[in-house]
Amino acid sequence: MATIYIDNVPYEVTAGKNLLEACLTLGFDLPYFCWHPAMGSIGACRQCAVKVYRDENDKTGKLFMSCMEQVRDNLHISIADMEAKEFRAHVIGWLMTNHPHDCAVCDEGGSCHLQDMTVMTGHNYRQYRFDKKTYVNQYLGPFLNHEMNRCIQCYRCVRYYKDYAGGKDLDVFAAHNHLYFGRHEDGVLESEFSGNLAEVCPTGVFTDKTLKQHYTRKWDLTTAPSVCHHCSLGCNIVAGERYGSLRNITNRYNGEVNGYFLCDRGRFGYEYVNSLSRIRKSLIRTQLPEATDKYKALQAAASAIKAGRVIGIGSPRASVESNFVLRTLVGENNFHHGVSDVEHDLAELALRILRTGAARTPSLKEVEKADAVFILGEDLTNTAPMLALAVRQSVRQQPLLEQVSKANIPVWQDAAVRALVQTEKGPLFIAASTNTKLDELATATFFDSPDAIARLGFAVAHFIHEESPNVNGLTEQEEALAQQIAMTLLAAENPLIISGTFSGSDRVLRASANIANALCAKEKAAGLVLTLPECNSMGLAMLGGHKLESAFEAVLNGYADTIVILENDLYRRAGTERVKQLFAAAKQVVVLDHLHHATTEQAHILLAAGAFAEADGTLVNNEGRAQRFYQVYPTTEDIQESWRWLFEIGTIVAHDQIIQWESFEDLQKAMAKEIPPLQGVLATAPPADFRMAGQKIPRAPHRFSGRTAMLANINVSEPKPPEDPDNPMTYTMEGYRGQPPSSMIPFFWAPGWNSAQATNKYQQEVGGPLRGGDPGVRLIEPDPIPEEIFSMAVPQNFQPLPDHLFILPLYHIFGSEELSAKSPAVAERIPKPYVAINSDDALRLKLEEGQSLSFSIEGIAYELPVKLNSTIPSGTAGLPIGLPAIAYTELPAWAILNKQIQWKQQHQTTF
Amino acid sequence: MLTTEEKHQIEHEISLVPTRKAACIEALKIVQQNRGWISDSSLAEVAEFVDMSPAELDSVATFYNLIFRRPVGRHVILLCDSISCYVMGYETIRDHLYSTLGIKYGETTEDGRFTLLPNACLGTCDCAPALMIDNDLYRNLTVEQLEEILNKYT
Amino acid sequence: MEKPLTQHIVPSRKPLSLKEYEAVGGYASVRKILQELTPTEVQNLVKDSNLRGRGGAGFNTGLKWSFVPMGPDAPATKYLVANADEMEPGTFKDRVLLEGNPHQLIEGMIVAAYAIQANISYVFLRWAYKLAAKEITRAIAEAYEAGYLGKNIQGSGYNLEMHLHTGVGRYMCGEETALLNALEGKRANPRAKPPFPQVSGLYGKPTIVNNVETLCCLPHIINNGAEWFKGLSRSADAGTKLFGVSGRVKTPGCWELPMGTTIREILEDYAGGMQEGYLFRGLLPGGASTDFLVEEHLDLPMDYGSIQAAGSRMGTGTMIILDDQTCPVGFVHNLQHFFAQESCGFCTPCRDGLPWVERLLLAIDKGEGRPEDMLALEFHTKYLGPGNTFCALAPGAMEPLQSALKYFREDFEQHIVEHHCPWSTVWQPSI
């Protein structure tokens, strides 16, 4: 700690930070632009100037940029000094010389950092009397709008996009006051993290294009804290609504999870909620019209369940609560996971590894601090995007620890750090089936089949700890690489192993676990991150349940005749023929979901479920962190959370357990009691009767306009605002005006801080945890005394088969995930179907790029254009999984090539 | 496509620096020397060769005023407009060039012979006013000399 | 009078070849340091000589070197860069040295590189110096051939590579950290200091950037000693200095003279006084980014301290004369146009403030000035000062402006009151 004097008042602050951070942490309103807590200081905008005095006797002082000054003991500064204030006001004057002053028509208006800072400095009258420059704007794709005229040249966009996120296609052009920030030509921004530009940009240069389709000012949005449903990482989001439609997703700071950023799937994948294919009314297929009201639907479902021999099929994209109620309703023995059996087993294995192994799963924040990383079998950019972004930061860790600290440069001195470190990177090893976007950062890459990856992993583990099994038959190169990786991991302070379920291989998972456990056995603080298929795969695994195949068998063998399917499209979980058989055999099919799909078509009774923004619930992410998401806006009574439908059905059928519950909390308590590992769920959020100063927490800011008039075209009498029985939040602006607990922050706002930058005001220390601690409760911790830590299941090496290709799953951030793919902006980015094959194999098959290849997997025929790939191993091929146009099959799997295709015979040499 | 000779020259520059990127300005100079200016396609070719994205390279290219990202004439006239030449009356030279060539700053004659650009101090202030055409420096200029000077360039 | 730096420079003749240069004592300092002096001794000798940087800032060269990490723990790679990006308007002194005697520069660079134990060196030459480029290229090749560059120089075990890098424009490249970015193939934005280049410079490695004239002094200091060097001067600052004069004088040019020669001597004895029909009004003593001096200052000695005491800076020591037939507003506008164009665009006050100043001056010069424009000019001179901007470009730009507002205020006011330029040569802006 250090004592600094601000306008002669002493304050205790953290030594080593910069002065701007210190002042903001103390609550001073010091304006800034180019500094960003995640990206550090460069001293470009000159907005955060303060007076710094030599000592307590110095009365003149000198202007310094607070972001560039390190806090030191006995530092005397002034924020209120007239000269400093005047300078800060002039900085705004300079920045605004060419700004269009178009706030009224600018999407940023009302959540604009430039507006806030302008007001803060007191720069009210324009002194520049000459004409302004104008720029031509660019088309940047479906996610972002570009309006260069508003630019204040703070360089944040390029620093974020290029330096932080590794983007290649956005930069700053020209010099002096002709700077241009954009692409070198019009076109779709390539980065998977481009959407953050909308929040990184302090004004309206980069704005959310999807919001523009249904624009609403920030102050007119009803918002609630939520959790992203589009992958297993559980990034925290704020979802905003007006007039019953979801308008946007913005980042919800969580120091441990996503920090300040989101991926584009998370930010722009929300629009399926507003889709035309939403199920807005429950349907009973046996009646006409099919659409029915809530009560008839409930009765129908209840009678079906009462009458039948029921099984339930849960979902990894539904909350633990919804899954738990289904499990309770149908009984533990009749509850099946609505995922493929491979996925079921992998998720269970992952859970077991994390519970019984010695290595801890670090949070994303901790991943950033790892100083040696080994990724096995994952294309993180596409399977767990924000984890890829965290790994991108981790490769900076070793140079930061070594060079930068030696040169005595504070890490927040971003430009200086980058000038010193240059292109040097810490160790990162990637073993994957094909090339990934992170390869450019890698110390070494290894492209091979999942079995070969597992073998490499086992070999690494063996080199670290001899009790881990040896691998026979490695090539010299493989052995050398395994040695190198092992030595590097051993040499690191915080080595990290990343793997997951996306290669579809339990061997890869086991090998990863062996490495992590081997490191722990060598007293290394090793981390192990395992990605999982979906947002609540971990929660589902923790709930326990049977495989999907056993559900099929139960119905096909006549043990069950009624199926309740929770938020799930079974055609994405098992082969089409198999699912058809299931539905043919079932007498009654009850489906709860929010979007129409092939499975809802088969429902006899279809219950209109709330999408994530219309529901409360808890998800457990891959880290084992339980996180609460809140309903954003009230729905009509036709739509309600799946858990509520099932709860009400349970009440009607007088289920002995369910009938005792009265509230969402009762349900959660029952769950915690029945499944003790989920006990932590209760601590993720305050109870529904929680009040602050006797008041509820408002979802709308106090400037929310038109509440009493917004429905006046329908009815002039003002209806009573709907109440939310499940949590302590109101749907209006009425309620407690101060800061709510960290798990319930519906929006970031503070007096004078209308933009996302208000986040500063919610943190204990700028850039650190939220006040009261970052939200979420970790449910899984490693076993302090692990037993049988090493798996012995070293696989044989992969052997290609003639006339066959071993099909590996390939994932796409845009397209592979079911829900986001139904959002128009994301849909624009989905790649066309293809099959990726090894370039040498293509030669042998006489195939060129774009020609079609036909093959079949388990009887399902595919005919797809070929994409040549130089990294995918020979004898295998990659099939983009989950893409709307590609039929489901369990992967990896062998494909038989169509008979017309002949492997090219070896050329005969004749003499 | 970069020519073999261009590649050879660029590779030589790359051999003198620690990363391929670090030679990007040299690479642009080499290509501009051959082609007069850096077109979008030249930019993309150079970028690929030095392991940069087109945006990254264009960011560098557009920073420097002597990398031409628009076509120029066969000869580029750089007229010094800095202080000593100002004092010594470079404007008469400029105006004369405007009228003789029928172009202004930033423009190229219709026959593609000359492009006229203003340039910061040429460092020959004791012999102001001055201008450069291609690699040739002309000093102590008077309006009368201009015709003869321009005639040297076809 | 000794003129060590220019003694072998004859403007009409080709520069000395390596053989010729050796014949007149060239490269003796290289042999001397390699045989007799440790790097630290070279540093101390130069520190003692009180050689101050000739690029404009005037920092003690030996002291600057002493911040470079030395010894076994120092990074293996270190760099020396000769700053030959002479682009300060009105400045043409390094050109004389570069075109006139490139071997002297190479010799000085070897001395400097040896002193900090750098093994790679660059000459960062501005693009426009075509002749210099040709001569330096030839001289470097000769030096390699004669074993003054490359591996195991003169059998000493010391290695030094030297490369010529020519720039592609931009005044900013003259700022040492921006120059390093340019050398790295990046945009020539300046870097934050600290860390100083001595610790984290080119490619993040310890680096010294020295001006051409500074480097050219080194062989002579090594050969003749610190006391001799100090004795060359007529003032507290050591050595000789290349002084230049441009503008409406009879014989503009550049001369090597003892440090501390008075402005009047330079103007009258060397530049021949004002041309017929022109009267002296003021001068910028050391390039475009120095404050005006006027009649009352003419007897000041040209050295760092004396000029600073008069409220200006010696800068590069090449003077630009403002005569009575040139409009001071137009003169200052020309300077501000230059600075606005050459701003790198990194920090706000410089990027957006300088074009504002330029527009104000243009308006005033065109007779469209308003009384409040004077206030706007003044707040810029106040707030574009050192420390408020990221580097010294904008503060440098404000120096001639603030002093013009002091010495030629009436001319500015006359423009505004009379709504036209009394010199009526309206400067047309460039595109």
Total domain units of chain B: 2
What proportion strand of chain A?
15-25%
Average pLDDT of chain B works out at 96
Largest sheet of chain B: 4 strands, mixed
The value of Rg of chain A in angstroms is 29 Å
Q: What is the share of helical residues of chain B?
A: 40-55%
Strand content of chain B: 5-15%
Largest interface: B-C, 45 and 61 residues
Tell me the structural class of chain B. alpha+beta
Counted beta strands of chain A: 35
Low-confidence stretches of chain A: 903-911
What does this protein look like?
Chain B: Belongs to the complex I 24 kDa subunit family. Chain B: It comes from Pontibacter qinzhouensis. The complex is a heterotrimer of chains A (911), B (154) and C (431). Chain A is of the alpha/beta class. In chain A, helix 8 packs across helix 23 (642-652), helix 9 (320-330) runs parallel beside helix 23 and helix 10 (341-356) packs across helix 19 (537-543). With 154 residues, chain B is an alpha+beta fold. Chain B is built from seven helices and four strands. Chain B has a four-stranded mixed sheet with strand order 2-1-3-4, covered by helices on one side. Chain C is an alpha/beta fold. Chain C folds into three domains: 18-231, Rossmann fold; 240-323, Ubiquitin-like (UB roll); 328-418, de novo design (two linked rop proteins). At the A-B interface, strand 7 of A face helix 4 of B.
Secondary structure layout plus pairing:
The complex is a heterotrimer of chains A (911), B (154) and C (431).
Chain A: E1 2-6, E2 9-13, H1 19-25, E3 49-53, E4 62-65, E5 75-78, H2 82-95, H3 113-121, E6 144-146, H4 156-164, E7 171-173, E8 180-182, H5 197-200, E9 206-208, H6 209-212, E10 222-227, E11 236-242, E12 245-251, H7 264-268, E13 282-284, E14 291-292, H8 294-307, E15 310-313, H9 320-330, E16 335-336, H10 341-356, H11 364-367, E17 372-376, H12 380-383, H13 385-394, H14 397-406, H15 414-421, E18 428-432, E19 444-447, H16 450-464, H17 476-491, E20 495-500, H18 506-521, E21 527-531, H19 537-543, H20 548-556, E22 562-566, H21 576-585, E23 588-593, H22 598-601, E24 605-608, E25 617-620, E26 625-629, H23 642-652, H24 664-674, E27 697-698, E28 729-730, E29 777-778, E30 804-810, H25 824-827, E31 835-838, H26 839-844, E32 852-857, E33 860-869, E34 876-880, E35 893-897
Parallel strand pairs in A: 1-5, 15-16, 15-22, 17-18, 17-20, 18-19, 20-21, 22-23, 23-24, 27-28, 30-34, 31-33
Antiparallel strand pairs in A: 1-2, 3-4, 3-5, 6-9, 7-8, 10-11, 11-12, 13-14, 13-24, 25-26, 26-29, 30-35, 31-34, 32-33, 32-35
Helix pairs in contact in A: 8-23, 9-23, 10-18, 10-19, 16-17, 16-18
Chain B: H1 4-15, H2 24-35, H3 40-49, H4 54-61, E1 75-80, H5 83-87, H6 90-101, E2 114-119, E3 131-133, E4 136-138, H7 143-151
Parallel strand pairs in B: 1-2
Antiparallel strand pairs in B: 1-3, 3-4
Helix pairs in contact in B: 1-2, 2-3, 3-4
Chain C: H1 18-23, H2 28-36, H3 39-49, H4 61-65, E1 79-84, H5 93-100, H6 102-116, E2 120-125, H7 130-145, E3 161-166, H8 176-183, E4 207-211, H9 212-224, H10 226-231, E5 240-246, E6 253-258, H11 263-270, E7 280-284, H12 304-309, E8 318-323, H13 328-342, H14 348-365, H15 371-383, H16 393-407, H17 409-418
Parallel strand pairs in C: 1-2, 1-4, 2-3, 5-8
Antiparallel strand pairs in C: 5-6, 7-8
Cofactor (chain C): FMN; [4Fe-4S] cluster
GO molecular function (chain C): 4 iron, 4 sulfur cluster binding; FMN binding; metal ion binding; NAD binding; NADH dehydrogenase (ubiquinone) activity; oxidoreductase activity; quinone binding
Enzyme class (chain C): translocase
